[in-house]
Amino acid sequence: MQAILKRIQHLFQSAFGSTNLEDRTRDIQKQANALAKHRDLALLRIELGELLASTLQLCNECGWEPSEVVSETLDRIEQRVEVYKKLNRKQRVGLLRADFDPFHNHHLALIETVLKLDCVDEVWLMPTFQSLTPSGSVSNQDRVAMCRLASQNLDHVHVFTYEQEMEFSGDSYHLVKRILGETSFRDRIEFCMILDRSVADEMHRSTDTERIEDAIPILVVDSHPPLPAPENAWFLNPPHRWIQLEPSSLPSSTQIEIQGLLENKDPAAWSYLPADLARYIQEHQLYQRPTRKKDVAAKGKVAVFCDSFSPPTLLQCEQIQALLSQGFDKVIVHPRGVRADRGEHEVALPRHRAALVSLAFRDLSNVEVNYEDISNGTNSPLIDLTYKYQDQGQVWLVVPQSDAIKNRSGRPATIETYEQGPRLWKEARFAVLIDTPMDGSEELPPNHIKVNIPKSLSPSDLRGEIFHGKRIDHFLDRDVADYVKRHRLFVPGTAGRDAFFEVLRPELFIIHDERNPRAVELAQAYQQYQSKSPNLILVIGGDGTMLKAIREHWRRRLPFVGLNAGHLGFLMNASLPSDLQGIELISQSLPLLRVDVLYPDGKTAMHLAYGDTWIERAEGQAAWLQVRVNGEVQLQKVVGDGMLIATAAGSSAYARAMGAVPVPLDSQSLILAGSNIFQPRFWKPMNLPGTSRITLTSLDTRGKRPLRAFIDGQNLGIVEEISAKQSLTAAVELAFTKEYDPSTKLLKSLFPSDLS
């Protein structure tokens, strides 16, 4: 160590001369921020070397022995651990979740108060996955870097990037539920959530308040000067706690006001920020958007239409057309997640809801669908959506007349009961769907336009009609109605079962293997059913033809019917009648595999696979991989040719060649298999729950062991990491005749009769 310290001292003196303490610590800050931005291990190693060299030079300049500095730190950590053991309790951690866009003095005062009053042992700053404020334009990396700068001089304060790592953009309840469920925290940490009083006052308007109260203790910190606590306020009841903010000499303001000052280059902004953050913002030129208003105005008006769309109706299609005809340039359809209080007959699986929405609105121009809430099972507050879509144009929220009316009797409008409702009422723009004449006594939001629509059944009333077996064809698009009937949606006791249906009017989109003479011949036999408005996709060939067809056409949300003209054809019917009129089929809805890919240059991409994804060595050296399941390391180091993640549909293909046991198509599992695994010794393929997220990461730090990835046989090139999980919204329907049973064919392949 002494030789290294002398070498560092000599090089730094000869290259940079004498450096004062402030400049040295600033250099270390910059290097730490650069380190935090890298995921490529080779670059990470370089940045770590720079940081270590600067840190050791700081020890030289201050006359510290590095081993003593580290030893003292370890002693403090051990003392904290021993304190918790003696107290016979878990570590108390307060989660402070915010945009931190930017971190400012109010955050600082809040943290200091909580720690001073011994409410928690540590405060973890948890930046949100997406900044939700109107001016929030800085990257997630910059927001994390600002949090690290702000916390570096604060004892017992850490930055917790869980929400960003999980890419979670849902509500607080579901986020808390995920964190509390992590086994790495469960046995050693007792969490509470830290809320500013202004946020807590809004929570009583949220339908999720009771669920959040039951899930985690909440520490409400009052503003200064303190506000009187309302009688029977929810946060006055144990295990929650209400404390008052300690008086502070630091000037404070709201996040939005600070962003405005920064955008306008007002020097007053710096008084609200810690000095290190002010320098960081100036050096990285953050919050500079002088042309934003012109850009947004040029993009026109955007209507954001939130509803359950469960199911989407013809009336809602008419409502979208009415919005477009009234001057809106785009309509964004944003289906909500499922509410926990809904019964079985009122909900459908996320993949079914996504399919219904896709079928209903696919032919409408200037309509975009966002499936985020369906995927996450969340309900994004309207106030968040106004910020989410602001860069696409001037945002208008579409609301029904019943939610927008405020009577003179003093009853608040339903909008005002939403999250941040009073602010929403005053500041947001609303397109109000008027289906009942108004007598003039009603008050609508200050910024609104009226869109007149005919009155019809709501989706909830329509679900009641379906529940009682009444006809629904005149309320729904033809393909939507067919899908609801085929999968028996909104009827108790049918969720997740195979769909039996009769093809009354065969209208086909035909795909065949043009290099296969048998497939060409069969395709000609079914040309009479070819249609421009198909209700079935007929695929003729082998499993490879089916995989290609699925990859290119799954978004049509139509059943795929395979006809085998290849070899094994696990995904294909052995035969089909020449007359398809009245044929009875069994349909299985199978989720696609979502594969997130990280490339060596830091870029990312998302792909969808039907059968499998795998990662393998690209050159002669063996692959070194780490395996994580749901974020936890399960295999620290795997040495071999590669590893594969397969769905049930892919279990009979490449996974089987790697030693995995094929499973039936309707099996809710993912298969993890390896090719020529040398380490760990005797490791075997395994089946994991279908809800698992499996991540395979390269351990190569020198570029000697490049890896390439594939999805369904397509080469994605050299990668650093792949992460796969079942998609909640992307799915494929495979249909089979009653005579063909994929499970029986699978069983026969496992127990072949020609073993002699």
Notes on the structure:
With 756 residues, this protein is α/β, with parallel strands linked by helices. It folds into 5 domains: 2-66, no CATH class; 90-283, HUPs (Rossmann fold, 3-Layer(aba) Sandwich), CATH 3.40.50; 295-463, 3-Layer(aba) Sandwich (Rossmann fold), CATH 3.40.50; 498-582, Probable inorganic polyphosphate/atp-NAD kinase, domain 1 (Rossmann fold, 3-Layer(aba) Sandwich); 590-750, Probable inorganic polyphosphate/atp-NAD kinase, domain 2 (Tumour Suppressor Smad4, Sandwich). Helix content is 34%, strand content 24%. It contains 26 helices and 28 strands. Strands 13, 14, 15, 16, 17, 18, 20, 21, 25 and 28 form a 10-stranded mixed β-sheet that branches. A 6-stranded parallel β-sheet has the order 3-2-1-4-5-6. The chain has a 6-stranded parallel β-sheet with strand order 9-8-7-10-11-12, with helices on both faces. Helix 16 links the parallel strand 8 (330-335) and strand 9 (367-369). The longest helix is centred in the N-terminal third of the chain and has 22 residues, at 41-62. It is globular, with a radius of gyration of 30 Å. The protein starts with a helix and ends in a 6-residue tail after the last helix. Mean pLDDT is 84; it is low at 290-294 and 340-345.
